[in-house]
């Protein structure tokens, strides 16, 4: 007694067509969670701060502007820095302790609402999660509008003063083996101060002094 076996014929083109349809879907499904999990988010624990100078956390600043044509230059000392002391253990588990950064912009806001950008102090710096690193240099703001006014006979204060400093940095953090991520950060300090001096007929000298807070 013989047995008859039936073999179902499958079109080769149908197999190829079905495989071509399924491969991109499987590849995309596998790649999506991997891509999202491989790149960490930028940390939010790096903030504006003040380095320790002479054993003291300094936030005091002074500047003198010589005015000509109602324009002057206001320079700030290197008292501004990146505070990474709040990053904690969760930060060190993802990123390496040391990081680098580049200052890309520094903007001064005056009490009259006008803003000025510094061409000085824009440079590279380095930090560590356990310290507050100082900015790479002092910021110098030129052509600041300083109108006529001020103390007459030694009485009264000059009215226009700095009120805010905003610094933009591009931070590079290392993680894993040879991997890095770039994180733009905007740091802001509020400036509190007074000014003395006199500007008359577009010329004079103004002395600024105050403190900064974050």
Structural class, by secondary structure, is alpha+beta
Number of strands: 15
Beta content: over 45%
Counting DSSP H or I runs of 4 or more residues, the number of helices is 2
Q: Helix coverage percent of residues?
A: 10-25%
How many strands, what sense, and barrel or not for the largest sheet? 8 strands, antiparallel
The geometry reads as elongated
Short structural description:
The chain has 214 residues and is an alpha+beta fold. It is built from two helices and 15 strands.
Give an overview of the whole structure.
- Residues 1-37 form the signal peptide.
- Keywords: Signal.
- InterPro entries: TAT_signal.
- 16% of the residues lie in helices and 50% in strands.
- With 214 residues, it is of the alpha+beta class.
- It has one domain (47-213).
- Strand 7 and strand 8 form a beta hairpin.
- The longest helix has 27 residues, at 12-38.
- The chain is elongated.
Write the layout of secondary structure elements.
Blueprint: H1 12-38, E1 47-49, E2 52-53, E3 56-57, E4 60-67, E5 71-76, E6 81-83, H2 88-94, E7 95-110, E8 115-117, E9 124-128, E10 132-134, E11 139-145, E12 149-150, E13 162-175, E14 179-200, E15 203-213
Antiparallel strand pairs: 1-6, 2-3, 4-15, 5-11, 6-10, 7-8, 7-9, 7-13, 12-14, 13-14, 14-15
Features:
single chain; 214 residues; alpha+beta; eight-stranded antiparallel β-sheet; three-stranded antiparallel β-sheet; 16% helix; disordered N terminus
């Amino acid at each position: 007694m013989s047995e008859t076996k039936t073999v179902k014929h499958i079109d080769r083109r149908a197999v190829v067509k079905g495989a071509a349809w399924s491969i991109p879907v499987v590849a995309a499904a596998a790649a999506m969670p991997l891509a999202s999990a491989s790149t960490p988010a930028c940390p939010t624990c790096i903030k504006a701060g003040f380095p320790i100078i002479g054993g003291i956390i300094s936030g005091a600043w002074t500047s003198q502007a010589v005015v000509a044509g109602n324009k002057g230059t206001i320079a700030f000392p290197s008292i501004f820095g990146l505070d990474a002391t709040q990053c904690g253990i969760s930060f060190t588990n993802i990123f390496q302790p040391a990081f680098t950064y580049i200052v890309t912009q520094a903007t001064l806001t005056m009490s009259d609402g006008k803003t000025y950008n510094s061409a000085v102090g824009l440079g590279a710096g380095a930090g560590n999660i356990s310290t507050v690193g100082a900015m790479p240099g002092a910021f110098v703001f030129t052509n600041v509008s300083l109108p006529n006014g001020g103390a007459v006979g030694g009485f009264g204060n000059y009215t226009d003063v700095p009120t805010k400093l905003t610094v933009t940095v591009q931070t590079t953090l290392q993680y894993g083996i040879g991997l890095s991520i770039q994180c733009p950060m905007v740091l802001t300090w509020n400036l509190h101060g007074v000014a003395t001096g006199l500007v008359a007929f577009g010329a004079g000298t103004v002395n600024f002094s105050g403190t900064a807070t974050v």
